[in-house]
Amino acid sequence: MSSKSVYSNLIKAEAKRLGFLSCGISKAGFLEEEAPRLEHYLKNNMNGEMAYMENHFDKRLDPTILVPGSKSVISLLLNYFPSETQIDNTYKVSKYAYGTDYHFVIKDKLKQLMYFISEEIGDVSGRAFVDSAPVLDKAWAAKSGLGWVGKHSLLLTKNTGSFYFVAELILDLDLDYDAPVTDHCGTCTACIDACPTDAIVADRVVDGSKCISYFTIELKNEIPNSEKGKFEDWMFGCDICQDVCPWNRFSKPHNEPLFNPHPEMLDMNKKDWEEITAEVFQKIFQKSAVKRTKLSGLERNIQFLKK
């Protein structure tokens, strides 16, 4: 067995030990197919007010520019599907934000994986990424065989659906590369049909400026009145396109204690949310991604849903 195979197997075994759902490896280089897609997305202002997406165009498409000398992109998936969800008929929080902010949880695991690589393989340099730099996570995960990009633009995997985070290590190490898997969406249009704001457009693209997640998290101004009555009680993020996807019948609960929600959050009804205080917000979302929108943002969203 070549050293590339040995190293690849070592890394995958350690990723599994650290709790990652799966690990795939692809050769670092220019993402030719993604270039025109990204250009079209930005040209049509589908990023809304997310101006940061217009930065570092070349780095988004080529990790060898982002991490000079890089040879491999290691893509990792971490499950966040909860064993329990919020009560019915309440204001809803996207499942990914139930527990501790995933950036902290995954960064810690990636640091451990980088340490393991340097201990077992030697002087390897590279960088870890968790949705916080110009890296096209889903494109790399698909390239490394971890799933295919579904019509809702999220990565889908046959035996686990799509409720997971995607992260990367970009390294200056030659490894064995995995092959992409085939697409299994077929003629299904469940996600497109279910999206209340018609955000899912052609060619596996979501118009970010129409997405409920964008309105409730990224948009800093008032939510346009034209969107009234469309949000189906989502006050932070939205899971509609994932909830209706047939592949998510195979989602299994995560085993990461840090992703468990504060117990009070699951039982809060609409009245509780409407009367939420700074103290309760702090207690329930102390380390959650919901803090991104702040209490004022959550209150804005609740007021919008109430009217």
From TrEMBL:
Main localization, broad class: cytoplasm
InterPro entries the record matches:
4Fe4S_Fe-S-bd, 4Fe4S_Fe_S_CS, QueG, QueG_DUF1730
Q: Where in the cell is it found?
A: Cytoplasm
Q: Which annotated residues bind [4Fe-4S] cluster 1?
A: 185, 188, 191, 245
Binding sites annotated in the UniProt record for cob(II)alamin = 60, 131, 155, 213, 238-239
One annotated Gene Ontology cellular component of this protein: cytoplasm
Its pathway is: tRNA modification; tRNA-queuosine biosynthesis
User: Where along the chain is the active site annotated?
Assistant: 131 (proton donor)
| Requisite cofactors | cob(II)alamin; [4Fe-4S] cluster
Keywords of this entry? 4Fe-4S, Cobalamin, Cobalt, Cytoplasm, Iron, Iron-sulfur, Metal-binding, Oxidoreductase, Queuosine biosynthesis, tRNA processing
From which domain of life does this come?
A: Bacteria
Instruction: Write out the catalysed reaction.
Output: epoxyqueuosine(34) in tRNA + AH2 = queuosine(34) in tRNA + A + H2O
GO molecular function of the protein, one example? 4 iron, 4 sulfur cluster binding
Binding, [4Fe-4S] cluster 2 = 195, 211, 238, 241
How many and how are cofactors bound here? Binds 2 [4Fe-4S] clusters per monomer.
- Self-association or partners: how does it assemble? Monomer.
Read off the HAMAP family from this record: QueG
Protein family per UniProt: Belongs to the QueG family.
Official protein name in the record: Epoxyqueuosine reductase
